């Protein structure tokens, strides 16, 4: 299978944009000071197929920090580098049923970070990134995510500085995991690389290309670069299906029927395996930290483009 024709995708994007353009529901994240300044009226949509064609609507060129969507791609890179069983044993692939920055989830599970898409599991994953020192490890992450995007992704220094200055909770999660011997590296340096990966600046266009690389067995459709193996894409999509929208992952799968990943700046990336990537951006969030308008627009697109993986026809 493949995505419908460019005309059909354009019509669906226009319809989704028109339907939700006045819907600025939700609350902008404010626990990271720089994110509190986001304009809730922003709304962008992009769809990229596995051949590199990108269609879009609204604020698709507006840059924002990737936040938790980075977790999917760092997981893929570490899965590639260390092997699936090693990462599964050390990080896990089951949903916590609890918020993304839960400390209780770690305690309830005897120190397990549970899955790579919550902060504990993402910190554990980032601690496994190969490299001799902090600079090497950051280079691995930045270069790897840039290969998924097909262009060099840059740090948003304002967001990075803001989160680094208010990072007590993530540092605490990393220290707690370290006390359970669940980290592969120093907890404070791990948290710093994690904070940087969350502060990479992207657009919905970048995210759609990154998603289409996962949809295409790891081959970036713009550059032809084999970023990770097809088996790593399969592992990553499975982890997203269980946990990509945190404690709302079941509702998401029930509504949209595809693996997805959200971030607190308002991005949501959805992958149609073998077909392409869909990215939405709008800063208003639900209580779990998922863009409300992004979920609604993706739901519309999943239906209009016939992408629900559980549909028989
Ligand atoms: N950088 C954010 C944090 O660690 C990412 C969280 C998110 O996007 N849900 O809190």
Automatic annotation (TrEMBL):
Single biological process term from Gene Ontology = glutamate biosynthetic process
State the top-level EC class: hydrolase
Family in the record: Belongs to the glutaminase family.
In terms of superkingdom, the source organism counts as Bacteria
Q: Which residues participate in substrate binding?
A: 68, 119, 163, 170, 194, 246, 264
The portions of this protein that span the membrane are none
As recorded in UniProt, its EC number(s) are: 3.5.1.2
Assembly description: Homotetramer.
Phylogenetic classification of the source organism = Bacteria, Bacillati, Actinomycetota, Actinomycetes, Kitasatosporales
UniProt GO molecular function: glutaminase activity
Q: Which HAMAP family match?
A: Glutaminase (MF_00313)
Q: Which protein are we looking at?
A: Glutaminase
Q: Give me the reactions it catalyses.
A: L-glutamine + H2O = L-glutamate + NH4(+)
What are the record keywords, sorted? Acetylation, Hydrolase
């Amino acid at each position: 299978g493949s995505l419908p024709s460019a005309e059909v995708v354009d019509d669906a994007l226009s319809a989704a944009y028109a339907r939700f353009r006045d819907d600025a529901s939700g609350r902008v994240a404010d626990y990271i000071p720089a994110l509190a300044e986001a304009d809730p009226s922003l709304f962008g949509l992009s769809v990229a197929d596995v051949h590199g064609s990108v269609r879009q609507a609204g604020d698709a060129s507006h840059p924002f920090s990737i936040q938790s969507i980075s977790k999917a791609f760092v997981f893929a890179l570490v899965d590639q580098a260390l092997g699936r069983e090693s990462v599964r044993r050390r990080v896990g692939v089951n949903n916590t049923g609890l918020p993304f920055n839960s400390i209780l989830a770690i305690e309830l599970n005897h120190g397990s970070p549970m899955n790579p898409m919550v902060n504990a599991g993402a910190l554990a994953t980032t601690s496994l990134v190969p490299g001799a020192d902090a600079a090497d490890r950051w280079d691995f992450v930045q270069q790897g995510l840039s290969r998924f995007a097909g262009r060099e992704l840059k740090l948003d220094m304002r967001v990075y500085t803001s989160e680094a200055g208010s990072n007590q909770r993530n540092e605490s999660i990393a220290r707690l995991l370290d006390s359970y011997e669940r980290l592969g590296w120093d907890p404070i340096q791990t948290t710093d690389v994690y904070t940087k990966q969350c502060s990479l600046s992207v657009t919905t266009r970048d995210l759609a290309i990154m998603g289409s690389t996962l949809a295409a067995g790891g081959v970036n459709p713009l550059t032809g670069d084999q970023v990770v193996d097809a088996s790593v894409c399969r592992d990553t999509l499975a982890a997203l299906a269980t946990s990509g929208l945190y404690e709302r992952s079941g509702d998401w799968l029930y509504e949209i029927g595809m693996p997805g990943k959200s971030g607190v700046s308002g991005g949501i990336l959805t992958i149609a395996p073998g077909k392409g990537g869909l990215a939405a951006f709008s800063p208003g969030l639900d209580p779990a930290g998922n863009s409300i308008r992004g979920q609604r627009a993706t739901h519309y697109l999943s239906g209009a483009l016939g992408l629900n993986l559980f549909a028989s026809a």
